[in-house]
Amino acid sequence: MTDKQLNNLLKQMTMEEKVGQLVQLATPFFKGATDRGEITGPMENMNIKEEDIPNTGSVLGASGAKETINIQKVHMEDNRLGIPLLFMSDIIHGFKTIFPVPLGISCSWDLELAEQSAAIAAKEASTAGVHVTFAPMVDLSREPRWGRVMEATGEDPFLNSTFARAFVRGYQGDLEHDTSKVASCVKHFAAYGAPEGGRDYNTVDMSEWMLREHYLPAYKAALDEGAQMVMTAFNILNGVPSTGNAPLLRGILREEWDFNGVLISDWGAVKELIPHGVAEGAKQAAEQAMNAGVDIEMMTSCYTNHIQELIHEEALEEAMLDEAVMRILQLKQKLGLFENPYRGANEEEENQIVLSKEHRDAARKLAGQSIVLLKNEHILPLEATQNIALIGPFAQSTDILGPWSWGGSSEDTITVHAGLSQYVSQDKLFAAKGSDIETSTEQQLQAALSTAQNGDVIVAALGEHSDMSGEAGCRADIRIPEVQLDLLKKLKELGKPIVTVLFNGRPLDLREVLDNSDAVIEAWYPGTEGGNALSDILFGTINPSAKLTMSMPYSVGQVPIYYNRFNTGRPKDAPDAQERYVSQYLDIPNEPLFPFGYGLSYTHFEYSNLTLSNSQIDEDSILSVTTTITNAGQIAGEEIVQCYVRDLVGEVVRPLKELKDFTKIHLQPGESKNVTFDIREEQLRYHHANLEYKSDNGEFELYVGPSSAEGLKEKFRLRKQR
Ligand code: GLC
């Protein structure tokens, strides 16, 4: 359908039909749904009548070719003008084949594998009839108390931006011509990852300078990569809820960034303008959200019940409604839905490709690249001749998919026990839970201690239940639950080597785990193939290479803590620092337990010969930075080499370090390789106090190393000609 035809269609639409396009309802509201459940209540609460449903524009949460085809079929019969439904769902890290949670994926620093994971998710979801995924979630966060850090890619704006682009490429590809792709909806706009106290939905308040410098880049990157939609955030930003925030949505998103795609509210966020205290009722909420540029209202009915009234009262212009409707129709056109309302939905193909060996292998590979080795006192990798005592609530748990694991299911999930069984015979593998996640019994403990006696080595599988992170999964105490720490301490008393493996959705306070373990592995939620990937790491089939993308705090008292922090006027580590009157705690260190970019290998790498192509660049030249990396150990491995810059003097304060580039190299034992990064003037730009984005002449330090906390250092100058 051409734009001209869309305009003609728009002209034929009644006001009710136009408003209907702005409404998104969950699957049970639709006649073709398999499980309609009890909907009269919610429908009455929303003051939505059964006869309104055929005008609805999109469906939330449907999936499965059979269901989506049924819903669309009934809809196309009932919708007067034959306008097809859009099907949107939260395919965040896999559809049926579940990949590691995005925080885990980011620790792979592997953009190709990240893109592949999104492409596979899109392929599975599109055959199930999904048209749009509410992903990637790119909310930068420095808040491990916040449950949704698992859903994003860490604390660095540059790394977040590169992953945002990779995910959008994977989901969308050639969207208009390839029905195995889905439209990407980047979320949550904006700065949802900075809630006060790390408590979900809580107040976000920051300078526009901080917002633009750290929190906005990844959204912009996703849109520059072509993301078709944006979802608003629940939080306020500088006093105004994002969903009614015209300076943010119309000002930055639509006017400054020239985004003319579909903007959808988060679940109920339009109506939440009322409890936020900026709207007296649903009518004012509808007016605010529409004026702010929100096209689709998700799962509340302020638009349904008040847009027409507001237009008749001339509080809103019909032209604004027409613009919103046209954006939605154009997205349907881009997806080819007018020509084929069923797009990629195909039940037979769905059954063939979901969880295929190819997809499982990809999930296993990415999980193996996402698992971080934090400590290893010479007990890893394990040997198949050893007796293994697998102890802990995650020993045989299938709760390793993480929150938002869409169609992932227990029966498809490879547990740690199942994975280990691929490496050791049953007579060498002894398992016991030892405790539940947050409770335990003496019987459980005694059984575990008795089982552990059979092992030459203990693998303690501990962590958080997946509902202890994710949306509304916030914790003030970011240690693993007390009963599991008690179990670990009892195991430690047995005097056997202990490898602790963690399954969790956030950076944790791991001090007690470290004190009672000879090796510590951060597995996050590794997904459907998690047990296999972890076993590949434990037995050395994969030499771990993953590196943290969020700082692991020494304690929750340090939070927010991040590597790209500022020096302050009284840095504790200054050469002339006083004893007391410096920026420090009296009771804990300033540094995190593990810094951004940290991760161990079974081998070790040496960095040498950092050389710069020149000591000064201008806006037209390139600074080539070359470093030699050597595998000084006995095992082949991969190293994520990181390049950071420090701007020594800015018009505003400048971070101690900023990640500017990275690469992953493979080295045989004894092998050396030269790695070269090219640094350009545009990578030195930043937001000045007046928000102008530019670089300044001056001196810079440049670091190349294995993490944000260590590396070789050189200096260079920027001297622009213009
Ligand atoms: C939830 C989440 C959002 C998700 C939406 C639809 O509340 O905040 O990320 O996409 O609702 O499920």
Notes on the structure:
Residues 639-708 form the Fibronectin type III-like domain. Among the domains are: 354-538, Glycoside hydrolase family 3 C-terminal domain (Rossmann fold, 3-Layer(aba) Sandwich); 605-718, Immunoglobulin-like (Sandwich). It contains 21 helices and 26 strands. It has 722 residues and is α/β, with parallel strands linked by helices. The chain is globular, with a radius of gyration of 27 Å. 29% of the residues lie in helices and 19% in strands. The chain has an eight-stranded parallel beta sheet. Alpha-D-glucopyranose is lined by residues 90, 134, 187, 266-267, 471.
CATH superfamily of the domain at 354-538: Glycoside hydrolase family 3 C-terminal domain
Q: What general form does the structure show?
A: globular
Secondary-structure class: alpha/beta
Helix content estimate: 25-40%
Number of strands: 26
Report how far apart the termini are.
Answer: 49 Å
CATH class of the domain at 354-538: Alpha Beta
Mean model confidence by pLDDT: 97
Radius of gyration: 27 Å
Per the CATH scheme, the topology name of the domain at 354-538 is Rossmann fold
Share in β-strands: 15-25%
Largest sheet: 8 strands, parallel
> What's the CATH architecture of the domain at 354-538?
3-Layer(aba) Sandwich
Which strand order does the major sheet show? 9-6-5-4-3-2-1-10
> What's the number of helices?
21
Unreliable segments of 5+ consecutive residues: none
